[in-house]
Design a protein that fits this description.
alpha/beta; Rossmann fold; six-stranded mixed sheet
């Protein structure tokens, strides 16, 4: 089996933007709600015994606040990777989802059907997000020892985009992926540059029986 490093992608806890039903990417950087802070504490308890070697995070406040309890528990200093930041929402940044739905804008309806072919005006496509997330992670993983575990605090569309790129899927498939607050996905990066989705907790034995050829 080729050498590999595991990356546990974690979506941030509930933010003030989530609670208000508003988009937030570049012009507004809301913190976690009280519920989101409790989710962050539960995340730390859940992952407290996992064999974590490094923690990386989006630069946005909600992502940093989500991973902070785990970082304190494990006495690790989170490393900020700017390309783990939220999808660029262009002209919709800061707007309420309900208002965009009510306005029935053709661009918004097209985005709801296919976020790859119809990104927000002035914004970023879901697959472009996936490429930048996987690229920055691949670069960081070059600095890690084989069989390390990295926890990455990021955003829902970042996780969706990464899945689409790995599976070579298209933008409409993003509408069939749901990433709840503090939802997690384990990725494995082999030294031959191959990515693998792993359906198991991060604390399992490191060498499951499988054909990775």
């Amino acid at each position: 089996m080729p050498a590999y490093v595991d990356v546990l992608l974690v979506r941030h806890g509930e933010s003030e933007a989530n609670a208000a039903g508003r988009f937030a990417s570049h012009t507004w950087d809301p913190p976690l709600t009280r519920a989101g802070s409790l989710e962050a504490e539960r995340l730390a308890q859940q992952l407290g015994n996992a064999p974590i070697d490094h923690i990386v995070t989006s630069p946005l406040v909600r992502a940093q606040q989500t991973i902070a309890p785990l970082a304190r528990l494990r006495r690790l200093s989170p490393i900020i990777l700017k390309d783990l930041a939220e999808v660029d929402l262009g002209q919709w940044d800061g707007r309420r989802l309900k208002d965009l739905e009510t306005a029935n804008l053709p661009a918004f309806q097209a985005w709801r059907r296919d976020p790859e072919s119809n990104p927000p005006p002035g914004g970023e496509s879901i697959v472009d997000v996936g490429h930048r997330v996987l690229a920055v992670l691949a670069q960081f993983l070059k600095t890690c020892e084989p069989n390390s575990l990295v926890v990455a605090s990021t955003h829902a569309d970042c996780i969706k985009g990464a899945v689409l790129v790995i599976l070579e899927a298209h933008g409409p498939a993003a509408r069939h992926i749901w990433v709840p607050n503090t939802g997690q996905l384990l990725l494995r990066r082999f030294d031959n540059s191959r990515w693998l989705l792993v359906f198991s907790p991060p604390c399992i034995p490191r060498d499951p029986v499988a054909d990775f050829g």
